Amino acid sequence: MEQKKSMEFEDTDITYALINAFTDHASGGNPAAVCYLPHEKDDKWLQQIAREFNQPMTAFLVHRDANAESEQYDLRWFTSKAEVDFCGHATLASAHLLFTSGIVTGNTVRFHTRAGVLIASKVSGYKECEDELSSSMQKTWKVLDKKRLNGKGVVELDFPLVPAIPCNDSALLSAALDGATLNWVGETALGDYLVELPSSADVENLKPQFHKMLDFHGRGSIFATALASEHSEHDVISRVFCPKMGIPEDSATGSAHCTIGQYWATKLGKNELKAFQASERGGKMLVRVDKDVGRVYLQAQAVVVMAGALPTAKG
Predict the structure, then answer these.
(1) How far apart are CA 100 and CA 92, in angstroms?
(2) Residue ranges with strand state E in the chain
(3) Structural domains in the chain plus CATH codes
């Protein structure tokens, strides 16, 4: 039997951090591994590393010009199975790493991705992370500073609006949600489904039948949403199921709120919403919709859980 070739390692290290996004505490939100690369690596190597981390998402950052002061980075996202086109929580985690480590000392960073250029900006916090690293260190981040990485702040993500349009798949989707009553059903251009349920309790009590979602066309994710209960601090609630991407239920999903936010902003006639994702870990964000320019702005926090150095495999 042919044996798999193991990864060969170089003498340098890659800095990484495990970060929980869309939360203000270490046990909540959606985990992502973020790797800061000195240069581009081949796809096979990236996929192997993502498989080793085995997180909902692994992000890979490369500065676009190591000799320039521009805050522009190439950003790619991988699950343990495949590269994905768009991931909100790993983008938030990447921005938090750059801001809290001091690699980026300005207020804004631009990510070049499969989804186009995505912008992340500081809203508040991160003051203690400024002016501590020498300029020669800011683009390489060879130092793991515990105090720095414990820094907190609020980030705003500038994402494209992804509307859902009505579709005729109510019976299919209801069956995948164990017969749940659906008030509205729509589909996005990316092949994700948005469904509105009668109440927040209905969303919380859903019993998803993941095997029935595997044959959906497109990405086949389901964004289940409803108005939050009358006494909630939030406006809307959701759960997100992505079994075709290897994630039965996602903990906190920024990309889904590019659709959820647009739907509720239109229905409620308001452009700003407090959103809560009712997964086991939970996730929260402030969603602002600008339909005139086709953008959704998500404000949220993230927390570094651990950080270290990864031996650099050749590739």
Answers:
(1) 12
(2) 9-21, 30-37, 58-63, 72-78, 83-84, 108-113, 116-125, 153-160, 164-166, 184-188, 193-196, 222-227, 236-242, 247-250, 272-277, 283-290, 295-300, 302-313
(3) 9-161+301-313 (3.10.310.10), 164-285 (3.10.310.10)
Q: How far apart are CA 199 and CA 123, in angstroms?
A: 32
**If you count them, how many residues does the chain have?**
315
In this predicted model, what pLDDT tens digit does every residue of 189-233 receive, in sequence order? 989 999 999 999 999 999 999 999 998 988 899 999 999 999 999
Q: In whole angstroms, how far apart are CA 242 and each of 193, 260, 305?
A: 10, 15, 24
d(CA 30, CA 282): 8
- Residue 281 sits at φ, ψ, to 5 deg, of -85, -30
CB burial of residue 120 (10 Å; 0-12, 13-18, 19+): buried
- Entry pTM: 0.86
pLDDT reported for residue 38: 85
- The four Cα atoms 214, 219, 223, 224 give a dihedral, to 10 degrees, of -20
